[in-house]
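Severity: low
Component: inverse-folding endpoint
Summary: output formatting inconsistent between runs
Steps to reproduce: submit the following structure tokens with default settings.
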């Protein structure tokens, strides 16, 4: 596996493209199979956007759910409704 990246998000996580031994772009394959969202904040690549549109239309992976929740929306909702217990 090869990881290509130079930028980091606000949490200091590497924003990267991952390629497997077959030289497939894992990021694209995950979106194509409905196993990941195209996070437009960090990628404006129209190819990634089209892969997500196709996965949605084909109802593959997470798109089988009638109301999938984006990870960033889930985190926002969870943090907002969580109380800390000490």
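Observed output (run 2 of 3):
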């Amino acid at each position: 596996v090869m990881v290509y990246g130079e930028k980091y998000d606000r949490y200091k996580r590497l924003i990267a493209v991952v390629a497997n031994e077959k030289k497939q772009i894992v990021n694209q394959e995950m979106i194509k199979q409905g196993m990941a969202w195209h996070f437009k904040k960090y990628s404006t690549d129209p190819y990634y956007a089209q892969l997500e549109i196709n996965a949605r239309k084909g109802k593959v992976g997470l798109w089988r759910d009638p109301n999938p929740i984006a990870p960033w929306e889930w985190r926002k909702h969870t943090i907002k409704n969580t109380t800390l217990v000490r």
